UniProtKB/TrEMBL annotation:
This is Uncharacterized protein. It comes from the Bacteria. Residues 74-99 are annotated as: Disordered. It comes from Micromonospora narathiwatensis.
Length: 99
């Protein structure tokens, strides 16, 4: 390496990145549902190739998404009467896989 201070930052040759980055891990069906929900909230600008996981995570995949999302002035309130759902935490914990 030649003299001079080390520059720690993005390369000036790379395009400026913007938007939200999301790493998703789940079953293929879960990734499809999450991708659809996130795409409905914004504009999908980048999507990686789905990668299958191994070992105890066999059957699950990893996916990277980059989205441009416009922030709303005030998020809409959603309750059960507007189509929201309450989660039964005891039932969810009973079906959870051990770590």
């Amino acid at each position: 390496m030649t003299g001079g201070p080390r520059r720690d930052g993005a390369s000036p040759r790379d395009p400026r990145l913007s938007g939200a980055e999301v790493w998703l891990t789940g079953t293929p069906a879960e990734l499809d549902a999450l991708t659809a929900a996130l795409t409905a909230a914004g504009h999908l600008t980048q999507r990686s190739t789905r990668r299958a996981l191994t070992g105890t995570d066999t059957g699950r995949c990893r996916l990277y998404l980059r989205l441009t999302v416009t922030a709303a002035a005030k998020p809409p309130a959603r309750g059960p009467e507007q189509g929201g759902a309450l989660i039964d935490l005891d039932a969810a914990r009973a079906h959870r896989r051990p770590a």
